[in-house]
Amino acid sequence: MESTDFDELAGRVEGVSRAVLHIAAALEIAGLIDGPQLAQAWRSALPLPGFEVAGRTLQELAHALDGARSQRQALAP
To answer: pTM for the complete prediction?
Structure first.
């Protein structure tokens, strides 16, 4: 895989991850999903051999969702 191919793939994965995070946060704000439960489910995803990076990505998404919630709560009146 060439560097440009890797950059393209990494950018697409990052874009999809950010979209999922924004959708999850919006649904949590709307009261349609339980954000802490979703974050815990992401953290609890079983690691599969050969998919360590995917597991790490889910951990990062869970952390980001929790961080966004904390930030919203800190800004709330």
So the answer is: 0.84
